[in-house]
Amino acid sequence: MLRQKKLLNSFSQEAGHLVLMLLFIFTASIVQAQEIDMLLKGGHMIDPKNKIDEQMDVAVINGKISQVAKNIPAQHAKKVIDVSGLYVTPGFIDMHVHAFNGTDVDAYIADGLTSLPPDGFTFRAGVTTVVDAGSSGWKNFRLFKKQTIDKSQTRVLAFLNIVGNGMVGRFEEQDTTDMNPQQTAYMIKKLFPDIIVGIKAAHYWGDFTQVDRAVAAGNLANVPVMVDFGEHQPPNSIEELFMKHLRPGDIFTHTYSYGPTVRETVVDDNGTVKPFIFQAQKRGIIFDVGHGGGAFSWRQAVPSMQQGFQPNVISTDLHAESMNGGMKDMSNVMSKFLNMGMSLKDVILRSTWNPANVIKRTDLGNLSVGTEADITVFNVRKGDFGFLDIRKTKLKGTQKLEVELTIRAGKIVWDLDGIDAPLWEQELQKK
């Protein structure tokens, strides 16, 4: 009787495996027979999540990744784009921007002119997703959503400022009575959990009160906190910040800033990375570049890279006062790290899959089958280049990322050299 049961179980398992195999073959045949909307052929794919670093084709159907494989047949594709000699990656995620663009001429970043409408600055740099870094608080987030998030082709997510009015101005950001963890958490957890991915503490002149309120809100909403910790006189201890106030998964932005009178630096005056920086990173503190218009210096970044301290996330801190200085755009900031010795694979990791994990949006930053087709295609130019920091000092380099094609949700939103376009003479002949 026992032997019969074992035989029956074995037969059931084999039958189950057979059914699964037939189902897989049937599904695969349907996918192959289905007409592909767009097929990128011949590119070198770098997809850190899926551990791909080789030549692969990628097919898109109905705005989603339908297949990633070598030599996907082109006969079923409506559009075939030859990307041979180029790199194909997930759409870049810029985890630190200011996009609450508005018309309040008295405001700084919240609904003001310093914030930028994202579509004009994202796609040309390969960015398909941005995270606004605390421009709005719970009191004005709905306006930000209506004006920017709902109107943009770029996917716009947000860190909600612990200050209810957001970044209206420096004086308003000192108001501790407007730092309400409960209201902030409610806005995230109950109203906009798919859009608001974290909390921001910034520009505070006092002690750790603002950070602690932000962390309290982060605990209530189960989201990370990003801290801009650099306007205290004398500077507060970043070791105390990392080890006593922030949690693993919380974010320290403007990592390579140099402003020692108001902000403690990660590299000391002798050019040595402080030992507790490595300990903090090992503890789980996330170090974000947040380049900006005043927060990236070679004297901090170069020694850090040479001594093995690398950022977890590469980001721009894009706004009207940063975009025309040392920080040009996301591809320029990524190029800086490439020229400081970071491998291309690691640059892509820190611009795609790492930020996706930090903000707990693992549906982003990868090219897995079934995900929304956010894709960046770029080349790495070789030559004699110069890269500026915020102090207008230069690092010479030999490599520069140049974005050729950006695809957002399966639609081409940036085509630098017309690799998707027919020659005009051919179109003329058709008529």
Name some characteristics of this structure:
6-stranded mixed β-sheet; 7-stranded parallel β-sheet; alpha/beta; TIM Barrel; 11 helices
Report on this model:
It is a single chain. Helix content is about 25%, strand content about 25%. The protein is an alpha/beta fold and about 425 residues long. It folds into two domains: about 1-35; about 90-400, TIM Barrel (Alpha-Beta Barrel). The strands form three sheets. Strands 8-9-10-11-12-13-14 form a seven-stranded parallel beta sheet. It has a six-stranded mixed beta sheet with strand order 3-2-7-15-16-17. Helix 4 (about 210-220) links the parallel strand 11 (about 195-200) and strand 12. The longest helix is centred in the first third of the chain and has 32 residues, at about 1-35. The N and C termini lie far apart (about 80 Å). The model is unreliable at about 5-10 and about 20-30 (pLDDT under 50).
Q: Care to give the gist of this entry?
A:
With 431 residues, this protein is α/β, with parallel strands linked by helices. It contains eleven helices and 17 strands.
Would you give the CATH topology of the largest domain? TIM Barrel
- Give, in spatial order, the strands making up the sheet with the most strands: 8-9-10-11-12-13-14
Count of the separate structural domains: 2
Output mean pLDDT. Answer: 93
Strand content: 15-25%
| Number of DSSP E strands | 17
User: How would you describe the oligomerization state of the chains in this entry?
Assistant: single chain
Structural class: alpha/beta
What is the makeup of the main sheet? 7 strands, parallel
Termini Cα gap: 80 Å
Taking all Cα atoms into account, the compactness measure Rg is 24 Å
Query: What's the helix-strand series?
Result: HEEEEEEEEEHEHEHEHEHEHHHHEEEH
CATH homology-level superfamily of the largest domain = Metal-dependent hydrolases
CATH architecture of the largest domain: Alpha-Beta Barrel
Share in helix: 25-40%
